[in-house]
Sequence to fold (1065 residues):
Amino acid sequence: MYEKTLTQLAAALKSGEFSSRELTAHYLQRIEKADTKLNSFISVTAEQALQQAEIADNARANGTAGTLAGIPLALKDIFCTRDVKTSCGSKMLDNFIAPYDATVVEKLSAAGTISLGKTNMDEFAMGSSNENSYYGPVKNPWDLTAVPGGSSGGSAAAVAAGLVPAAMGTDTGGSIRQPAAFCGITGLKPTYGRVSRFGIIAYASSLDQAGPMARSAEDCAHLLGVIAGHDGRDSTSVARGVPDYVESLDAPLSGLKIGLPKEYFGDGLAPEVEKAVRDAVKVYESLGATVRDVSLPHTHYAIPAYYVIAPAEASSNLSRYDGVRFGHRCDNPSDLIDLYTRSRAEGFGEEVKRRILIGTHTLSEGFFDAYYTKAQQVRRLIRQDFLDAFEDVDVLMGPASPTPAFDLGAKKDPVSMYLQDIYTIAVNLAGIPGISVPAGFVGNRPVGLQILGTHFAEAQLLNVAHQFQQATDWHLQRPAFAEEYA
Amino acid sequence: MQWETVIGLEVHVQLATHSKIFSGASTAFGAEPNTQACAVDLGLPGVLPVLNEQAVAMAVQFGLAVHSDIAEVSVFDRKNYFYPDLPKGYQTTQMYHPIVGPGDVEITLEDGSTKRIRIHHAHLEEDAGKSLHEDFHGMTGIDLNRAGTPLLEIVSEPDMRNAKEAAAYLKAIHSIVTYLGISDGNMAEGSMRCDVNVSVRHKGLDVFGTRAEIKNVNSFRFVERAIAFEVERQIELIEDGGSVVQETRLFDPERDETRSMRTKEEANDYRYFPCPDLLPVVLDQAYLDHLRSQLPELPADKRARFKNELGLSAYDANVISASRDMAEFFEAVHNECGDAKQAANWVQGELSGALNRESLSIANSPISARQLGELISRVLDDTINGKAAKEVFQALWNGQGESADAVIDAKGLRQVTDTGAIEAMIDQVIADSPAQVAQYRDAEPEKRGKMIGYFVGQVMKASRGTANPQQVNGLLKEKLDALL
Amino acid sequence: MALEDSHVRRAAHLARLAVSDDQASGFVDDLSRILDMVDQLQSLDTKGVAPLSHPLDATQRLRADEVTEANQRDAFQRCAPAVENGLYLVPRVVE
Fold:
C-alpha cells in the first residue's frame, strides 16, 4: 500500500480494494518498525487513528465519504491539536496540549482524513536541517547520514520513507520546499493568506504559511483544496474563492512562459544540481513551454532582510512562553525575573535563543531604523522583483536548494546554514507561492526543482508540476529504506 | 517668584463593547477570575487576533465628537515588555498611526468661562489583566478577565494650567464618552483611568519644565488633589535648589501624596513594531459620514442651546448638560411643562437632592420626567401652591400615585382660589381669635404687618394648605383693616 | 555596526533569557557574524521606498461585536504550571 500515492490510495479506498482501517494499520506498523531509525515522529496517535479510520470506513459504507475520507496523514508538530501534545519541537512545549484544533486540522478532519501523529521539526520552525529539535535530529531516508532538511524535516522524511502518504508542513523561509527537495517529494508553499494560520504556532507571522507535502503534485492539489480558504479567526487569511486545483491539473503547457532567474544559477550552486534543473527545464520545452532568462536583482538581499524580519517577529511571538499560563516553568523560581529568565533559558534551544536575541537587538532603540525599517524597505524591493518578472513570464524555475541534502552535523556555523535558503527565502518575503518537485539525484540524494508563481497562482503551479510528473518519474522513486519495511 | 503649572492628561477609556477588542470573550465586569479569558486573551500558542468592528466605530465616534481628523489608515503595533498581567509579552496598541488624530475639547470653568484643550491623538489598544496580591503562599495571583478589553487612550496636549482645568477636562471627556454611549465612564470600576503629566515653570517662560507622570489617578477629586500635591512638591524641590526627575509616580489617596514608583523596568525599551497578525485598518468617507450622521447632540452643543435658546444661566446650562441622562431628563421635563427655568430648578433642586440622598442615578429616578413636568405645570397654572407641590413630589417619589393630578386629587391638594370660600374661612378665623384681633387692633400700624402672619397660618391650616397664599394675604389684610 | 557584549546582555535582559558569561561570549560571536551578513542591507539605497509589513496589500477585516467564547477556564488551566482559585500564580510581584 505504501508505494501508492495519496490519489491512488483514495481510488483504492473508493473501490473497496482495502479499508481505511487496514490502510491505517499498515502505516502505523511501518512507523513502528522504521521510525526508530528516522525519528520523524514526535507523537504517534495510533489509537485515535484507528478510531478515525473506523468512522471513515462507516462513512464509506453509508455513501457519505468524501474523496479523501480514510486517508492517513501526519501533521508537523506545529499544528495545534486538541488532546494531543503540540510541542513545536521544543522543550518549552513538551507538556503542552492545546485546547483547540488548528483550522487546517479541523478542515482535514472534516474531510475525513486520519491523523497518524505529529512529525518532528526544528524547534519553533527555526532551522534548515531538523537538527534543532528538542526530540533529536531526523534522518533522511535516502541516506541516513544526511539531514532531511528543515524545518518540516519530519514530515518530509516520513512521506519519503512511506510512513504516511502525505503530511502537512509550514514554510517561513523554505521549510516545506527545501525538505521536500532533500527527501525527493513534492511540497507546496501556498500564497501567504491562502491557508489559515489559526492554531499554527507562530514563528514569523508575516511569513508563515502551511502547505501539503506529498508524493505528487496531484496529491498536493487534493490536499490544498481541503485546507485552503478564508478563516474568520485569522485576520491575514484571504477572502477569496478556492478553485478546483485537481480539475486544472491536466491543462496543456503549450505556450507556457518560463523565466529562469539568473541570480538562481550563480555562485554556490552545485553543478550537479544545476544540471538536474536545466534538464527539467528541457522537459518543459519539450512540452511546449518557452524559456527565457530573467533577473530578480535584489535576490542577494533576501537572506539579510529575512534575518532581520523573521527574528524580530519571532522575538515578540515567543514572549508568551513565560512559564505562567502554559509550557515549561523552572523549579522554585525565587522571584518574577528568575521565573522568566530561567524558564525561558531552560525551555528554548540555542538557535531559538539566537534568533530571539537578534530580533530583540534589531528592534531595540537606536537600531530599529537601520535594521528593521531598512529590511522592510528591502522587502518591498524584493516583492517588486517578482511582480516585475511575472509581467513577462508565467512561472519562474530554479533549484530549491543550492546543494542536495548535506550530512548531519556538517553545518555548525549558523550563517552557513542560513545561506542554504538562498532560493527559497525571497518567496516568503514576497508572499508568492512555490512548489518543489523531484527532478533527479546527486548520487543517492534527491534534487528539487522549484517552480514559483505570482500571488494565488497555486492552480497554475500544480498544473505545471503535474505535467512534469506526467512526463518524468523522479517523483515515483523510492529510497531503499522504504522497501526494507515492505 | 511666579510659577506656572503645565498639565497634560492621558485618559484610558474602556469601550462599552460586548466582546473584547481582538477576541469573542465577554467584557462584562466582575466575573469569576479567568472565566472571561479565552485562548486569544491568554496568549495561547497559535491563536490570532481579529479586530472588533464596534471598538473601531466607537473610537471614530469619539474622534468625530472632538473634531479630530480620523486616520484613513491606522496601524496596530506591538509594545513589547514582560509582565504577568500581559499574557502575550506585548500589548497591541497604536504607536505610529493612531486612529484618531488631533482635535479639541471645550471645557467650562467654575466662573462659567470656557477654554479649548487640544487633543494630540487617541488610539485603540488592549487592556491588561490584573495582579492580585492577597496571600497565595507569598505568590501573586493573575486574573486575565480584563485582558483584551478595548481601551481608547486619549492624549491631550499640555494645555491645562491648574488642577481645576484638569478636572474640568476630565469631566468633559467623561461627558463626551457617556453621551456617545461608548463607555459607561465608571471610574470606580476602572472604566476610565487617568495618567497626569505635571510640570512647573517660571511664569512667562516658553520651555516646559521636567515632568512627572502620575499614574492611575482614578477620580475627578483625586486628579485635583494629586496635582495640588505634585505642584507643591516640584516647586519646593526647585526652590530648595533641586531639580525634578522625569519619572512615574503613584498617587496615594490615603496619604494625599504622590510617590516615586520603584519601576518594574530600569529602562524600558518597548521595541514597538507593526503587529504582523493584524492588517492596516482602512476607513472610507462613506463609513465616516454614516457614523457622523448617527452622532447625538454633544454636551457643548446642548450647553449652548440651553443657554441661548432656553435662557438658562451659564451655570445651570453647564451642570445640566454635563450628563446626557440629566440633560435628557431635563429636556423631557421642559417639554412637559414648557418652562425651562422651573424645569432646571426642579431637576437640580428637589430631584437631585432626593437622588443624592438615596444614592440613585437619574436614570433610576423613581419619579419620571413626565410626572415631574406635569407637577411643575400644576404649579404654573396655580392648581397647587409651592408647599403642596413638595408634598406631591414626595408622594410621586414614593410611588403613591400615577400622576401629579392623581396625587393632587387623592390628597385634596387642589388650591382654593374661590374668593368666597377663602373669605368664609377668614371670617371664621377672625371670629375664633378675638384676643389676637384685639392685639392687632391695638398694635402700632408698622407692627401689624408681622402680626398678620398668625392669621395667615390659621387660614392655611383651616384650608389644609390648599388656599392660595397670595389671596389669603390680600383678603386678610382687607378684612382686618376693616375692623380698625 | 559592531555588536558588543553589552548589546547581547541588554537583549538577553529585554528578552528575559538567562545567559551565563560563557554563553554570552558565544552569542556575541554568533550574532556578530549574523549581523555582518545582515549589514549587506546597508549597501542598498532604499531612499523613498515605503516599508512593507505584509506581503499582500490587504486591509484589516472587522469582526462583529459578539460574545462567541464560553468559559473554558478548566480546559485552559489544565496546561498551566501553577493555579489556585482560578488564578495563575507567579512569584510575588512588588509594585
